[in-house]
Please model this.
Amino acid sequence: MTAGQHRGEVALVTGANKGIGKEIARRLAAEGMTVYVGARDEARGRAAERELAGAGGDVRFLPLDVTDDDQVGAAVQRIEGEAGRLDVLVNNAGVVVEWGIPVTGITAEQMRQVYEVNVFGVVAVTNACVPLLRKSDAPRIVNLSSPLGSLHLLTDEGNPIATRGLLPYSSSKAALNAVTVLFANALREDGIRVNAVNPGLVATDLNARSPHRNATRTPDQGAEVPVELALMGADAPTGAFLGDGGPEGGSVHAVVPW
Model:
């Protein structure tokens, strides 16, 4: 906890109806923020709103499919009308479709499906939110990435990351890392801090079909690094890829290789 210094701030977390996203929303609400829970599924979004608000937080469900430009626009208009600004944007929504499919069996349509959420959706939501972020005294953007998008690790034949063969997911996270750096550079003069984070290997629905079912971290543990970056102020780093030292935890400030 940060002694109430974030009370009254406003946050948007995409894909926040379950898993890491919901835990990020829970923690930010506990800091006194108004948290918009972005979710495609209304029933799950409403359920998350009730659960998190039941703990005393100001949590508001926001219909948000990051691949739908109309919904993105409507979401930003609602935040502007109700709160007038945005202090924190957490781009958490993500998908993986290729468990069990070899690299040579991936179709262009599967690539498009993943990129629509993991890359294009992040760009759409971020661009739409920039005007509201500029109204904050210390705006922060946190993008949920993965070491599976690290070209350094993917080219290390001795590293398990290099054996996963997740063509759409890994390449989309590599693209997201580049998107993170480019936004960090473009928004630096505005004081908007933009970073990518590795939450570690977390037991979530996204990993449920993985043949490598060794996820030992909980969504609460996976939320630690994203929340820490979301709570940093104007002295936060920007254009960085930070993690927690691996699936079992470790240094919260471990730099993940690009």
Summary: The chain has eight helices and eight strands.
